[in-house]
Design goal:
This protein is mainly α. Among the domains are: about 35 residues, no CATH class; about 60 residues, Ribosomal protein S17 (Diphtheria Toxin Repressor, domain 2, Orthogonal Bundle), CATH 1.10.60.20. Helices cover about 50% and strands about 5% of the residues. The relative contact order is 0.06.
Length: about 190
């Protein structure tokens, strides 16, 4: 076994192809996949074992009603939500109950991040009202002191608005020339 690993490792070291280098980096056995497959596997952000879900209108409606009526009892745990769904609702099959509980758990996790469209329950409405009635301590539109540069001051002077209250001119520092991208030169004409 050890000898086979030594031989395999020595063949790995001699290989220069990109897919073989990627398999060494990821400690994968050399699979006969194209380079694009390897790059897709490396760059994909989702977990490959997760599959998409097909959810019918019945499952979605039932989950939304369940959340609207029983939000305080529901949790982020599927097993708990499954028990609650079977207690409070008459669901004809175990499979449908599990689908409803799964989608309910999914929606509960989304609700934790923020309001969910189509679901209206008391806590969410109170949160929205609180945000609507919020008055900031300092206004973002405070016009008591406005700072402008010298060019803007010259513009206001030319428009006969030099006597505005609360407007003060400030010297603007020029950015160093090196910080901008250098010109590309003449561009080729398009055909």
């Amino acid at each position: 076994m050890m000898r086979a690993l030594d031989v395999q490792f020595s063949t790995f070291v001699r290989l220069t192809d990109l897919r073989d280098l990627l398999s060494i980096i990821n400690l994968l056995p050399p699979l006969f996949l194209s380079t694009s497959h390897y790059l897709t596997l490396l760059s994909s952000s989702h977990v490959p074992n997760q599959q998409g879900r097909v959810r019918t209108k019945t499952v979605k409606r039932a989950s939304k009603v369940l959340i609207e009526k029983y939000y305080p009892r529901l949790t982020l745990d599927f097993q708990t939500n499954k028990k609650i769904a079977s207690e409070v609702a008459i669901i004809p099959s175990k499979r449908l109950r599990n689908k409803i509980a799964g989608f309910t758990t999914h929606l509960m996790k989304r609700i934790q991040r923020g309001p969910v469209r189509g679901i209206s329950f008391k806590l969410q409405e109170e949160e929205r009202e609180r945000k609507d009635n919020y008055i900031p301590e300092f206004s973002a539109l405070d016009t008591s002191a406005i700072e402008i540069d010298t060019e803007t001051q010259a513009l206001l002077k030319s428009l006969n608005f030099e006597d505005l209250a609360g407007v003060t001119a400030v010297e603007v520092k020029q950015a160093p020339v090196d910080s901008f991208r250098k010109p590309r030169g003449d561009r080729k004409e398009r055909a």
